[in-house]
Here is the input.
Amino acid sequence: MEKMLIGKGTGDAYLLSDKVNQHGLISGATGSGKTVTLKVIAEQLSALGVPTVIQDVKGDLSNISVPGAMNDKLAQRLEMLGINEFNFSGFPVEMWDVFGETGLPLRVTVTDLGPTLLSQILNLNEVQGGILNILFKVTDKEGLLLLDLKDLRSALNYMIERKDELSREYGNISAQSVQSILRALLTIEDEGGDIFLGEPGLEITDMLRTDANGRGVVNIIQANRLIQSPTLYATFLLWMISEIYESLPEVGNLDKPKLVFFFDEAHLLFNGISSSLEQKILQTVRLIRSKGVGIFFITQNPLDIPDSISSQLGNRVVHQLRAFSPKDEKAVKSVADTFRANPNLNTYSEILGLRTGEAVISFLNEDGAPAEAEKAMILPPKSSFTALDSVMTKAMVMTSPLYNKYKACVDRESAYEMLNRKILEREQELEAQRLEAAHKLELEQIEKAHKAEIAKLEKEKLKAEKEAEKASLKKAGQVGRPKKSVMEKGVDSFMGSVSRAVGREIARNVFGSLLKR
Here is the structure.
């Protein structure tokens, strides 16, 4: 166990290394000194070999990597604290950025994010969240990897195509609800979801590093852009805490923590969350301490933290809180009541009257009990107050030993490619069926035309045969009468003349007899 001097007042305020995993709270109004307190604790943890995770919301934390310099204001503060020797120092820093702009790309896959947190980001209602749960079950069952937004979009469209079949197995799935989720994806895409959802996903062990001198690496998440999407900011950090919990083994109570996570702007985490999600956060806060991990919530008003979670925060630093109304005064009174009473200190009055850099502090003592509230001046950080320029930040990122591992996005085969292949195969199958049907129709038409041609030819043949037969018969009739000779023709002519003469005579005789009568 090591003692870390954080502030000095009537006595020294020490944060004990073996009590850091009992979590903590840093609060105070804007400009009251929260950032300085954060830097001082992170620096001392780094010196002990403990890595930390910090969000840089205002862009003023990356300078922890650069040694500070003496100035009049700092000299005056050190004199007030009675510190004669003060060694400035920079600390090892790793820069991360969800959008990959000013730090190592910090990515997470859709599968790792899970349906609960994804529903939180997309602001889905209960029905839509239920459908998202079904989607994850279906894709898990069918081996469809959900890595990025295009995977998620493809899987949702696939669900619409199979909604009748899936509804019979999992319950009603309406196309309208699925389409609502698809529309919600447009919002997260506009916020950069297509950048941070993907691979390679963060390996938590890469945040548990020390440098060559054994100092813990300060992992700074550049959050000045991320904070503009409060729900995304809070949910992403909650995922990180959950991932830390899932990834690390049980270690019990250590002399010093394996990692300390500072959750800045913590009120965003609890804005509008469901009771079930609050219970999940509470469970994580309770159990993660056995993994050797401490969590410090940083917020302007301590009452932003639900009582169920605030009661788990053993180490407290409260800077000045301002009260401009009876409601504010009541809130400050409530905050003062969370401290262990000190008979020599009016905690309520002191919180209202604190100057910048001063705080009311209560850390856990060696027995694990909260110490009495003490007013103290926070020590100055050993690192610089001057913000780093873009050139220095870029150089820090590109010289990181993790740069090559995380710089490029990896797009391996996943649900998008697999479903597109299924669509292509189905289209090819349909095309083959269409071609087969067309070919069959063509054959039928050819066969029909062939039969018609044969019938025509047979008809023409029959007609020709009849005409030939008729011509043959006609010709046969002419051949049956043999031609007469000249003599026969002469006899015929003579006999004809005789016959005609005899006939005339008979006629005359007959008609003459008739006339005489």
Observations:
- Residues 111-190 form one domain.
